[in-house]
Amino acid sequence: MIQPGEATEDYGTRYWTGPGQFATDNLRGDDSRVIMDRAIPFVQQHAKEKQPFFTIIWFHAPHWPVVAGEKHKEPYKDLDDFHQNYYGCITALDEQVGRLRDELKTLGIANNTMITFCSDNGPEGSAKSGCGSAKHLRGRKRDLYEGGVRVPGLMVWPKQFPEAKVIDAPCSTEDYFPTVMAILGKTIPKAKRLPFDGINLLPILEGTQSARGSYMGFRSRSQLAWTGDRYKLYSKNNGKTWELYDLLKDEAETNNLAEQKPDLVKQLSQDLNQWDKSLK
């Protein structure tokens, strides 16, 4: 939320429109509304031209600094100032997602438009002073424990999936690309240098496949993680030591099985190291 008269770079950020280019108009008021104001005309233009479109809308909220306007703080006026702003930011974001969905209905394309939504990582800060909660999961933002990387993922695609369902298989935003390619009936070209990560999620979404059947790799500074349907391998020191968890029985990652299953650690660490080398 930028107050009238404030500079738009107070927090060291801008609204970038291209390499070396940034927006200079329509920057006052709620941040989520400012962002959605850029996305909706794009959608309207493609609907008018009856052209397929793909757009990514990266909201900032409720990333720090969390500052909400008075309108969105009002429902939480009985809370302390921090939570008024925090919940106000989320409410403003939710309002803009609703605005987008209403516009899709108005344009007559809501039924065959696939919308996916998730956050980028676990909650910020400490459990006592930070935003949000990872509940019983271990870790928060900047951790590769489940509390740092596991987030809710939502998808709406009325034409293809008219009934609500819950997917238990682990999925990732790395799966968007192969899934969209499959929806379009396109073949993913073989990479000349680097392999493509991710899987086509359609079989899982359609119910013909219940498990992921492959691992997902994560790296954050010296941390590494290799997460599958059941087991997860984790290292906090670039693979000098390993931790192994059975996520089906221990999603809070309290029982390290590395010493009990050395052969599994060996195999998974080899696979993880091979994936990690591909990042370079």
Percentage of β-strand residues: 5-15%
H/I helix tally: 7
Poorly predicted segments: none
Oligomer: single chain
Query: Main β-sheet: number of strands, strand sense, barrel status?
Result: 4 strands, antiparallel
Query: What is the ordering of alpha helices and beta strands?
Result: EEHHHEHEHHEEEEH
Rg estimate, integer Å: 21 Å
Number of strands: 8
* Helical fraction: 25-40%
- How do the strands line up in the largest sheet? 5-6-7-8
Q: Which class best fits the helix and strand makeup? A: alpha+beta
State the distance separating the first and last CA atoms. 38 Å
Question: What's the overall geometry?
Answer: globular
Q: Mean of residue pLDDT?
A: 92
Structure in words:
- It is a single chain.
- This protein has 280 residues and is of the alpha+beta class.
- The chain has a domain at 1-109.
- The protein is 29% helix and 11% strand.
- The strands form three sheets. Strands 5-6-7-8 form a four-stranded antiparallel sheet, covered by helices on one side. A two-stranded antiparallel ribbon has the order 1-2. A two-stranded antiparallel sheet has the order 3-4.
- Strand 5 and strand 6 form a beta hairpin.
- Helix 1 packs parallel to helix 3 (81-106).
- The longest helix is centred in the middle third of the chain and has 26 residues, at 81-106.
- The protein is globular, with a radius of gyration of 21 Å.
